[in-house]
Structures are given as C-alpha cells and as structure tokens.
Amino acid sequence: MAYQLNVNGKAMTADVEPDTPLLWVLRDTLGLVGTKYGCGIAQCGACTVHADGAPIRACMTPIEVIGDAKITTIEGASALPVGARVQKAWSELDVAQCGYCQPGQIMSATALLSQNPSPTDDDIDAAMAGNICRCATYVRIRAAIKRAAGQEA
Amino acid sequence: MGVISNITEGFSPSRRAVLASGAAGGLVLAFSFAGKGAAADSLAKLNAYVQIAPDGIVTIVSKNPEIGQGIKTSLPMLIAEELDVDWANVRTVQAGNDPVAYGRQFAGGSMATPLHWDQLRQVGAAGRAMLMAAAAADWGVDAASLTTEPGVVVHAASRRRATYGSLAAKAAAQTAPELSSLKLKDASAYRIIGQPIPQVDTAAIVTGQPLFGIDMRLPGMLYAAYAKAPVFGAKVASVDLAAAQGIKGVRKAFVVEGGTELDGLLPGVAVVADSWWAAEKARQALNIQWADHPTSSQSTPGYAGQARSLTAAKGGKTLRSDGDVEAALAASAKTVEADYFYPFLSHATLEPQNCTAHFHHGKMEIWAPTQLPEPGRQLVATTLGIAPENVIVHMTRSGGGFGRRLMNDYMVEAAWIAREAGAPVKLVWTREDDMRHDFYRPAGFHHFRGGVDASGNITAWANHFVTFGEGEATARSAGMAPTEFPAQFLGNYKLDVSMMPLGVPTGPLRAPGSNAIAFVVQSFIDELAHAGGVDPVEMRLRLLGNAAAADGQGGLNAERMAGVVRLAAEKAGWGKTTLGPRQGQGIAFHYSHLGYFAEVAQVAVADDGTVKVEKVWVAADVGRQIINPVGALNQIEGSVIDGISEMFGEITIKDGQVEQANFDTFPLLRIHDAPVIETHFLKSDNPPTGLGEPALPPVVPAVTNAIFAATGKRVRSLPLKASELAAG
Fold this sequence. Notes:
The structure holds 2 protein chains of 2 kinds.
Chain A lengths: L1 E6 L2 E6 L6 H8 L18 E4 L2 E4 L12 E3 L8 H12 L9 H14 L5 H8 L9 H11 L5
Parallel strand pairs in A: 1-5
Antiparallel strand pairs in A: 1-2, 3-4, 3-5
Helix pairs in contact in A: 2-3, 2-5, 3-4
Chain B lengths: L4 H4 L4 H8 L6 E2 L8 H7 L6 E3 L5 E5 L8 H13 L6 E5 L4 H4 L9 H28 L7 E3 L2 E4 L4 E4 H9 L29 H5 L15 E7 L7 E3 L2 H5 L4 E7 L11 E6 L2 H9 L4 E2 L9 H13 L4 E6 L2 H6 L3 E9 L11 E7 L2 E6 L4 H12 L6 E5 L13 H13 L3 E4 L2 H6 L7 E9 L5 E13 L2 E2 L18 E8 L13 H19 L3 H10 L12 H14 L11 E10 L2 E11 L5 E11 L7 H17 L7 E2 L2 E2 L17 E6 L17 H13 L10 H4 L3
Parallel strand pairs in B: 3-4, 8-18, 16-17, 20-22, 25-28
Antiparallel strand pairs in B: 1-2, 2-3, 5-6, 6-7, 8-11, 9-12, 10-11, 13-22, 14-19, 15-16, 15-18, 19-20, 20-21, 23-24, 24-25, 26-27
Helix pairs in contact in B: 4-6, 6-7, 13-14, 16-20, 17-18
C-alpha cells in the first residue's frame, strides 16, 4: 500500500505493508539509515525520531498510524534550531564512542530542550532514560545537553 | 559500487596500485623494508599509509577496525605528528582488510597503542624525511640543514620554503629511509599528540550519515533473516518453507545445512526478501522444528550443581603451587573460606550482528562490522570453498565491539546466503538473535581459602577455580593464568582448576578473564583485610610490598600499582570522608592490557537493597603519554560504567538455551544510574599503552567492597540482588 509521508519537510511515498514499522520504512524504503535499529521493542531508543516534534520509537510504530504527522529524523535535525545546537554540543564535547546510539540520543535531547529549555538533572534523567548507550557515554550526554541549554556543566 | 562513500573508499588493491604508480599526483609512501628478524618482518608489511595532494591535504590510512575505541583518530595522529602536518589538513580513511599491506589488523586486547606507538610515528617521520630529501635535491642543499613547520619544509639559511603539496610528487620518488635511522620528536615538541582531538567521524555521527555495517546499501540489494536453533548447533528437523515464500516480498527461503563448529556456519533457515521487514515476518512463519541435540539438557542450575560437586571433591589440576598452603593455613591466626560466582554475560553491541555480501565474477565481496577481518575471510573461504584471494573484506565502522566481533559467524552466514540468493544481500540479526547467539563471557566458580597472621598479614591463598572445558581444552576465555595476582606476591599460593563440559559458546568480553577475575580476587583480598583488622588500602599496599618475584612473566610491576592505589585513595579521601548510614567506599586494583588501574567506588545502599554507585575515582598509569585525552577519558568513563552495568545482568541457560532475549530481560545501565567519575593519570616513564579495557575490571570489586563497607554484607555472587542487601 502506498503511504504519503512528510519526512524532514519533504513529501515522500512508501509502498509498504501497513504493519511495517516506520524504522524500516525510513531505513530500507527511503534510504534514511541514520535512524538505528537496536532492539525492536522500544527498550533502547536508538530508533527515536520526532512525530510533530514529539519523540517516538520508530521500531514499534507501524506506518499505518503515521497519518499526516510530520516526521523528523536525525538527517533533518540540523534544520531545527534546537537540533543544530544539540549536534554542535555533541561535537564539541565529542560525546560519541561507537556512535551507534547517538542519533537516537540527539533526537531525544532535541525533543527535551524544545519543550524544556532549562532542564534539571532530574528532567534529563526522565527524558533520556529510554536511550541506552552501550558504550556508556552518559557523562558526556548529560554535559552536552547542559551545554546545548546554555548551562555549562 | 557501494552507495556509502566512507565505507567503500577503503584502499582496495586496485586503487592502491593506481596510487602507487603516482597517478594521483601526490606522495604515496609505499614502504618495503627488507630487514630481518621479528620486528623488521612486521615492518615489511607496512604500505601506503600516507597520501599528500598538491593542495596540501594529507590523507592518512587507519589500518585497524573502528569499534568506538577511537583508533581511526588516534593512529593517524601518530603519523601526522611526525610527518609534521596541521591536523586540520588531515583526512583519514579506513583501510580494507589487507594483511600484506598493513600486517595484522584487529581491534582487541587494547593492543593498538602499544603495537603502533613507535611504528606509526616512524611511518610519519619517514614521510617527513622524504619530503625534506626532495626539497634538498631541488635547492641543492644538505637535507640536514632543513627543518619543517607543519606542512612546509624550511631552509632557514636561505629563507626558502616549500609546501608539502608542492614537494609531494618528487618526494614519492625518494628512497624510503631506514626506520631505525629516523630521529623522533621529543615529547615537548608535540603539536598533535596529547591534544584533545575529536573523533574524525564525529560530524557524520551527529548528523546520521551512513557509517556502520548495518547502513550498507548496494544497488539491487536484498535483505536476509536467518533462523538458528535456540540450542546451539541443533539441526533443522522440519520447516514450512512454503509459508515463508507466500509472504509478499519474499524472494527465497532455504535450509542451510551448516556445520558443527559453534563459531562457524551453524544450521538454520534463511529468508531473502525485498525488505528486511518482509524477511523477518516470513522467518516467523517458518514453523521450524529443531532436532534433538546432546546439550539440550544443560542449565544454569545444572552447572551450579556440578560446580558444587567438583568443589567438594577438592580435585582439579594444580596450575600453581608455591610453598605449603595447608601448613600455612593451619598456622594462621584466622582463616576465611568463601565461594564466589559470576554469571554468563552477553556483549549486546547496540548494532546487532549484520553483514552485507555480494558474490560476483567469482569473487565474494563482503562489508562487515568486524574486529578481526582476516580470520573472517579465511572462514568464508574455507566454508564456501572459495580461494581466499577471491574473498574481499571491507571493514565498516562497528556499533560497538566489546569482543563480540572477534568472531565472524555473521560474516560466513551472509556470504553463504548471498551466494545462494544470487544477489547482494544484507543479513541483519534481530536483537533476539544477537542475545541468544552470542559468545558469552563464561560464568565461573571460585572456592577460596585464605589466612592471616596475628598482624593481619596474609599467610596463604588457595583458589579452586571451577570453569568450563573438556579434556585439556578450556572453553574460550574461561581460563585463568597461574601468574594472576596475588601469585608471586605470596609464599604460600595454590591455584587448582576443574572443568565441566559446556554446550554454550563463550568468548572474550571486554577485558576478558580480568572482568571476572578482578571481582573475585580483589573481593577476597578485602575479606582477608577485614579478617585481619587491616585497612583495605593498607592491606593492598602490604601485598604489593611483597614484590619478591614481581614483574616476572605475566606479572605486574608492584611499584606502578602501588602508585595508583595511593593516588586513588588520596583523591577519594579514603578514611577521611564522612559517610552516611548505608554509604561506603571500596577500593580495588587490577593489572590488565599493560595498564595499571586502581579505583575507589562510593555507594549508597537503600533500605530496600537498591545499590546506587555515587562516584568512582580512577587512578591510571598507562605510561608517559596520553595520546588523545578526549578519547582517553571517554574510554575510561565508558569502561567504568560498563563494568557497573555488568553487575546487574546475567545470561542464564535452560534446556540448553539462553533465557534472555532483549534489553527487557538483560538490562543495561541507563543515564540516571551513571555515577560521577573522576579520573587521574599517574604519568610514569613507560611507553604508552591502551585504554579500551583496563579501566573496567577494578570497578566491579570496588563496588562490591563498597557495598560491604556500607552494609556489612559481602557480595560473593553476581548479579547484585537487592533482596540480599536490604536493611535488617
């Protein structure tokens, strides 16, 4: 079935089965491989994208429920003022080790700072608890969020 | 042919031949050293690390796989330093698998730094010498009268200057110098080494560009799912291939006979489809019945029962026996006897195992996130009956390694399926596949007996280690060295080993051996310290003071270790910090991968037994030079949290199968549980060594020792169980 999608501000079409998770539509059908597969059961957050600005786990979101929601992926993050700031902080602190989880981390952090420009440590914990970093770069993830928020750690 | 430029841009043989002919118009350092002896032999394999374009942009090859340890940045830094170029003008590329050109290429053992510290600086210095020789010839001056500034050769007397870009073509025609003749920079002159340099792939990572194996895309590529038996190595008894083939998008479903080696191609059923989702859905419809298998009765409780029997039997093979342990125990003022256990663990790389393969024109071309490409190439060649020279392996960035990708099982599966499919195929494992088909950190059982004298000094140490293996063969990564501390530091020391058979594949997990041994050894030292009424730091310094036979084979340098123990204790305010109720500090040290690490953990244990690690102080001696501080600190912080994470999870076996399948049952530590980490380097006058692993082992016993300090409860079995640490 053909689905009309709005991804990173562009109209796109995907001819896929209705139960196909958004993750695999992005990766395999649309070629946007920045969004990662980690667990398939919304436990790790590597697949985090935005639907109308809110973070969702693309691995458990079937394409048939997307409707006309505007999807933003890591490839479109720099077009968001907050996203660009988060990416800059991530680069300046060199947060990543292997880097595999970081697109999901950045999308979760961008959603957090878009809704809450001055998060406390507890706010950061709550917003980022769904994103696993297997390399455990959590110390820098926290510092980068604070830097992007203009609060130097 | 790939869509991903940064993956396919590796130096394939054909491309290197073009470069070596000088067609690129720049300098290619193609070394060929005909020296003799072991060191010269490995150097003889050096080839084509550096290319300088006329505009001065320097391209440096990183030979080893990048798995998050930062090697794609730190190895080129060594070359760039001695080449004397501005880092802003350096581009790095990932080498392909090419042992002829680059020697051994692997990510393991934290060995990249010690193996390449001298070699790659010499590679850079050789390039600089050739550039200076080219300028000397141009100007008719003695090369010895020349100096360099980053990217420029300078003749001070005549004030002449020439950029590397302008000299590159002529420099390529110079004879490569003898590496041993090159004078390397004094550390005080470093411009790149020691600077905090961000990873070269950072921009691509934060913008989601294709980098990883799983991101690979080829024209006409199909997707594969592969179902294997939950009991390792069981064969397919029956399967409904038609059910899978009826699903939209499925191209092919077929049984793979496979073999019996657990690190090779195992039996299973492959589904190839137009999309991975279609392949995975079809795989769920296969209704596979698996044949009976001899290991299907194995279980975690079963191993524990066997271990109890083997421990009680007091048998085992004696690996080391110094002095007279029994007599010393009998004469001790106090003795302690304790059984320790640690579980199987999964690597759980966040990027599940995957591989892309394309069989074309008689060649098998592979793109793999692997830590060890050459054995993978050989495995593919042997299993598929293809000549090794017709198997080409491109290394992609890996979404974590931790030792998992030292095995190449996914590579041989992808190659087999791609050949059967007759098209390029990307095989992607599910998380469940990944967690249930790992090479697990082996579980282990230790029965300790130790004694202290009236002054609290350790008099004797006996360890009966029950592990896995059959006959003379220990299961992979399940052994223990007879030199492991405190061997050589105690007059009366004994290590016995018993083994039981295992149907579960095991393998190295980050700091293999050490990640378990440090826990039991450093915990039992703590037990003896408390039995003897000696402060745990003081007990460790006393033990290290017994360095009669220290620094022997496999042994450690007691002075370096004592240095980091004192530093960690000092920074943590050991014995001087006021702690609340159910709050405590613990210390531990461990030597592995040539690194000396002591760590103090501070924990708070809630009344319900929940453990919160509040802070960890790390003291490290990895030699005189930190190559890239920004990467070094990241590795240490990651290792510390990784070690803590490993204390909360376990892999268990039932009916020969792994019971856990995903992060809901095998949890990884999350941001709210990450402690504050404070790292201090103790610079010693030794060559720099690696940081991918050695910070991990000591944190585990530092935490359990801190739990004892906080609660009076000794953790002798992992994972931590809140119910056993609750108040009251």
